[in-house]
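MODEL INPUT / OUTPUT PAIR
PAIR INDEX: 1
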Amino acid sequence: MSEEVKELNFEHKIEEANKLLDKLISPDITLSDSVSIYKEGMEELESAQKLLDEAKFQFEELSNN
């Protein structure tokens, strides 16, 4: 996967997490929906964190060479 695609995926995941946060803030949300949206948001953030960790690993590998 190219660096540009990874960055776009990271940016997309953060954007999606922010959209989900906006939904959670809505006063019209039900408890059931809020739990579902929260889980989805956490999955997006975990995925984004994995991309960051991978980028950090690659940076460290390049720095050590």
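PAIR INDEX: 2
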Amino acid sequence: MENRIHELKTWEEYFQEVFMGHKTFEVRKNDRNFKKGDVLILKEWDNKKERYTGREMVRNISYILEGGQFGIEKDYVVLAIG
């Protein structure tokens, strides 16, 4: 099975934390059927101006914690990214 590429809008403050290496996860609604090994293209979004900033980065999904446990809603996932 081939890994998929997902383009995701990421608010500025969270984008910066991933960029700096402090935030190594994403919490997302699992409406894309994320899989380990998939590629995320994180696109920085200015929430005030409601537009992309032009910055983006690529991360790979290394682990997925499925929702429905540990207080995570059933339709959501925590994606370990690196």
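PAIR 2 NOTE: The first helix runs from residue 12 to 20.
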